[in-house]
Specification:
alpha+beta, 5-stranded mixed barrel, 47% helix
């Protein structure tokens, strides 16, 4: 089990996730996508199938890939063409008992629904999440979130146990929800304050206008009442 390694700088790809990369993988039909930061490779990668080869104008070759399953990485060695290849152990998800994941799946979907509602989702992402029935794949959808940092996504990738991964995904999504709720509360408070200031401003302008009208009326009455008779 040895495959060409494709490094992903500050990026994590999960099984089931399609990705297009501006790389040339030669004739290989399968590669290993491995996260990398500061020239340090992660210990876990994703075996991916090459689904299409593309030629990008001005950028050379690119490949469309689809992640298949996780893999533990072993020793790496450059072949005679200078291509770095790495030994790996396939780590596809084991399906846990439904009784162990049912409540976690329900909680995960509920939290994601709240997040999407706060973000104003048009329903497509919610439908996508609800369509996933596999617990491991459901947990991996947390990796799509732009709010999760590289370290959190890598932690998800490195968690082979599906139940533990789902717990971790729930934790991360709950943290996201709490942060979004705080942001919304602050935004609402600011908007309420701005609206209050605006209302007070218009009220002051109205009062000023009324005072001017009253003053003008009082002055006119004074002049009329003090005109000489005859």
């Amino acid at each position: 089990n040895r495959l060409r390694i494709v490094p992903l700088d500050d990026t994590v790809v999960f099984p089931g996730m399609p990705v297009t990369l501006p790389v040339d993988v030669g004739p290989d039909e399968r590669v290993l996508l491995v996260p990398r930061r500061d020239n340090t490779y992660a210990s876990v990668g994703v075996v991916a199938n090459v689904s299409e080869r593309l030629r990008v104008s001005g950028r050379g070759l690119a490949v469309a890939l689809m992640g298949v399953h996780r893999a533990s990485l072993g020793g790496a060695l450059a072949d005679q063409d200078g291509v770095l290849r790495v030994d790996y152990e396939a780590r596809p998800d084991a399906t846990p008992a439904t009784s162990l994941t049912r409540e976690l799946e329900r909680e995960y979907r509920a939290v994601v629904d709240e997040i999407l509602e706060l973000r104003g989702d048009d329903g497509r992402i919610r439908a996508f999440v609800r369509s996933i029935t596999d617990a491991g794949a459901l947990a991996d959808t947390a990796g799509y979130s732009p709010d999760l940092n590289f370290g959190q996504k890598l932690q998800l990738l490195e968690t082979f146990d599906v139940v533990e991964r789902l717990k971790l995904a729930v934790q991360f999504q709950r943290e996201r929800l709490a942060e979004l709720q705080v942001r919304k509360r602050i935004r609402d408070d600011v908007e309420d304050g701005a609206q209050k200031q605006q209302r007070e401003y218009f009220l002051r302008r109205q009062m000023d206008a009324i005072r001017k009208e009253l003053t003008a009326s009082g002055v006119k009455h004074f002049y009329v009442s003090n005109l000489p008779v005859g």
